[in-house]
Amino acid sequence: MVRTGNTALRAAMLLMLAGAAMPAAAADKAAGWHNWADRGERIVAAIGAVNPAQLGSACDGVTGTVVSQGFQFPYWGQQLIGVCHVYRSLFSHLKDNSTTRSAKKSECKELKQIGGHLAKATDIAEEPRALFIAQQLVVHIDAMREVYCS
Fold it and tell me: Which pTM value belongs to this model?
């Protein structure tokens, strides 16, 4: 009988601990998506303004925003890192007109892949801005591909 009581007590404690951990995980997820959306808005604005300095500022720390949130973003959400990488490279090449054919081909391929992943974005309950930001990035990527990769 004592053994059953201990088992029941342990089970009750585990359920209680699991319940306490769930709101913290939900809070981490909400905060993570909020950070993602804030960062994404700044990146969209910098790309739209074709402002390399603004993009650099918006992209500084993007990996930490995507990776260190206490949960894993869906693959399309992880694409902010790729957006920053390819646009920094593109802005640099456009500024000094130093693109090689190989670099251009690689950048265009990367734009296509990133755009394809972002196009799979879904509604995020914790952050309503996320889907719209992903869609805006796709529009920018498609426009860049039209101009730069044609």
Answer: 0.81
